[in-house]
Design goal:
The chain is 84% helix and 0% strand. By secondary structure, the chain is an all-alpha fold. It has one domain: Methane Monooxygenase Hydroxylase, Chain G, domain 1, CATH 1.20.58.220. Helix 3 runs antiparallel to helix 6. The radius of gyration is 19 Å and the shape is elongated.
């Protein structure tokens, strides 16, 4: 029974890593489409989201099957519970990549918004930080590294600060150029989507810590550096 369970868990891990690779690529494309106003790339992200949804469902079904058939305990149980939670967060990051692509599609369809405004420089920095958090959270999972996972938790504060800064920048630009308010509102939405990507990366890191140590760190932001 143990060897069978081990094989099933390894299969589950491979499925999760496959999903994470597809989601990370979708996020990369969504951000690039927004930065370059590439409608074709944006539409590709939107079309390919169905693949992420299908992979998420398959992984969830596999995880529930293992729970029902093998009734795992201790570290195996924590791993499967963490995988099911991470699976959901990855699917949501895929949805947020689609949201970014939809913003890109709108901006590319309006001549006055095709030129990157000044605030996009900061948007790029925020996007890179959010993508880095996703990569680190997944690396923490692969390498079973709780220290790296805690770095992701700390980085979330940086993205939150960037989001506040971007809000103020865009608010100021709206006041200065009210004729561009529609496009700026779409950029504001994009910053919110990126902030949510960082939140889901944080969730993944929290689940990695739980999986490895059994420690529940959700809602304990003040203890990250202990």
């Amino acid at each position: 029974m143990t060897s069978v369970l081990t094989k099933e868990i390894e299969k589950l891990k491979r499925m999760l890593l496959a999903l994470s690779a597809v989601v990370e690529e979708s996020l990369q494309k969504g951000v690039r489409a927004l930065e370059t106003r590439d409608n074709e790339l944006a539409q590709q992200v939107i079309r390919e989201d169905i693949k992420i949804d299908e992979m998420e469902v398959e992984l969830e079904e596999e995880g529930l099957k293992i729970l029902a058939l093998h009734q795992p305990v201790a570290i195996d149980l924590r791993f499967i519970v963490a995988v099911l939670r991470i699976n959901s967060d990855l699917e949501r990051i895929g949805d947020l990549a689609v949201n970014l692509a939809e913003r890109a599609s709108f901006l590319s369809s309006r001549e006055q918004y095709r030129k990157l405004p000044e605030v996009s420089v900061d948007l790029t920095k925020m996007a890179e930080k959010a993508k880095e958090m996703v990569r680190q959270s997944l690396d923490a999972l692969v390498n079973l590294d709780p220290g790296l996972a805690r770095e992701v938790l700390e980085a979330d504060n940086i993205v939150d600060a960037m989001n506040r800064e971007m809000f103020q920048l865009i608010y100021d630009r709206i006041r200065e150029t009210p004729d561009r308010v529609e496009g700026l509102i779409h950029l504001l939405s994009a910053t919110r989507h990126l902030e949510r990507v960082a939140d889901h990366a944080t969730n993944i890191a929290e689940d990695v810590i739980y999986m490895i140590t059994g420690e529940i760190v959700r809602h304990q932001a003040e203890d990250f550096t202990r």
